[in-house]
């Protein structure tokens, strides 16, 4: 029996809270076999990122090829890619693969550390967005991709349409950063058929790796064959539960998600 596999192409977080480590825990929690191709290495703990290293493009390519040569990959998740060269390598590797791709456009960590070189924004716009079956930006990431601020729900709707126009097939725009003090967070799911609101109660808890976990959770559900909207709803519930159980594993104040 060849069980469905999901592949994450992303950055490693030595602290185990975000990136590849969060993705693999999430895949396991959804009952999907997890594969990984490490696009960037970070040295980090609960107080920040202390070093970043990008492996050679040939080695990234070899990891991706090894995964596709052997496993039944039914969804791919992209996270921290670091540079324009890495984005080009990944976009080339996926160009001929018929598999849904969830793109988490990782740019800056909550701690403020840059996880994507400034020069790579153009490559993200022109090479990754058109390959995204689903793009999962938070508001700061959508603002950087579009080059203007988004300050309201109407602004979020317009941003979804602008991101669709850049080539992404669907957008899950996360509303958590909207400074409206409301007890409900509204995420928007947009595709060619329209925009639906996905509301959920606001948990006044912040945790490292939330964006990675949401995107890999959607990818896991797609890997199991679920339709996009259902995958996004189930993923939202999963992140909510994982946040509610968040814990502090290190000496810093940062919480990580509970995948147990
Ligand atoms: N480190 C890696 C490798 C990541 O992929 C990410 C986010 O995607 C982060 C750190 C930042 O996580 P957060 O912004 O949740 O702290």
Automatic annotation (TrEMBL):
SUPFAM superfamilies from the UniProt entry: Ribokinase-like
Coiled coil: none
Gene Ontology terms describing biological process: thiamine biosynthetic process; thiamine diphosphate biosynthetic process
Pfam family, one: Phos_pyr_kin
Listed EC numbers: 2.7.1.49
Root EC class: transferase
GO molecular function: ATP binding; hydroxymethylpyrimidine kinase activity; phosphomethylpyrimidine kinase activity
Recorded metabolic or biological pathway in which this protein acts: Cofactor biosynthesis; thiamine diphosphate biosynthesis
Xref: NCBIfam families: HMP-P_kinase (TIGR00097)
Protein name in the entry: hydroxymethylpyrimidine kinase
UniProt organism field: Marilutibacter penaei
Gene behind this protein: thiD
